[in-house]
Amino acid sequence: GLVRGQEVKDTGAPITIPVGRGTLGRIINVIGEPIDERGPIKATKYAPIHADPPTFAEQSTSAEVLETGIKVVDLLAPYARGGKIGLFGGAGVGKTVFIQELINNIAKAHGGFSVFTGVGERTREGNDLYREMIETGVINLEGESKVALVFGQMNEPPGARARVALTGLTIAEYFRDEEGQDVLLFVDNIFRFTQAGSEVSALLGR
């Protein structure tokens, strides 16, 4: 981070991160730097994390069901394609396992990708998730993976935690808009995301 009296240079540009298939199977932070100790990300395209949302005219108006392949979900609480879903549960009830199953099924059934954004996660949680995804084949260290991981962990400043969701969103938007892929974007979790925003607000004296 920055310290008082340190010299800084204003580039006049927003935070720009690597996007595309080079991010799959990798772990990056809020400014797009790899944090998985596997070398630089092989990306040819970059995008700013602050962008205008699509207009209403560009959005689909048809209501479609996203088939997850998980029978209890598809039967009792089907997910709408393009919609938002919240998963709520206590510790150890299987939220992460459920997310892994979703990522795996979407990849196999639709050839789509997933972006997992960890906001304020414990380092242990992020490491466990990464190892489990390697074991289940969702992340392939030798070939192409089906998920990109973006982490702004609990030990990072609130500004990083408040913006890391935008980094994950930017990667997901690239796959959606430029490659026409089905994309699942996970943000874990929303409480710590809003908490980071509250901390930033307090630091600014608002």
Overall body shape: globular
Largest sheet: 4 strands, parallel
Named CATH architecture: 3-Layer(aba) Sandwich
Task: Give the oligomeric state.
Answer: single chain
Total discrete domains: 1
Strand content: 15-25%
Instruction: Look up the CATH topology.
Output: Rossmann fold
The CATH class turns out to be: Alpha Beta
Q: What Rg do the Cα atoms give?
A: 18 Å
Series of H and E elements: EEEEHEHEHEHEH
Strand order of the largest sheet: 2-7-6-8
Helix content: 25-40%
Termini separation = 22 Å
**Count of helical stretches:** 5
Q: Can you give the mean pLDDT?
A: 90
Query: Considering the protein shown, what is the CATH homologous superfamily?
Result: P-loop containing nucleotide triphosphate hydrolases
| Total DSSP E strands | 8
Catalytic activity: ATP + H2O + 4 H(+)(in) = ADP + phosphate + 5 H(+)(out)
Protein name: ATP synthase
Domain ATPase F1/V1/A1 complex alpha/beta subunit nucleotide-binding: 69-206
Subcellular location: Membrane
Descriptive account of the structure:
The protein is of the alpha/beta class and 206 residues long. It has a single domain, classed as Rossmann fold. Helices cover 34% and strands 16% of the residues. Strands 2-7-6-8 form a four-stranded parallel sheet, with helices on both faces.
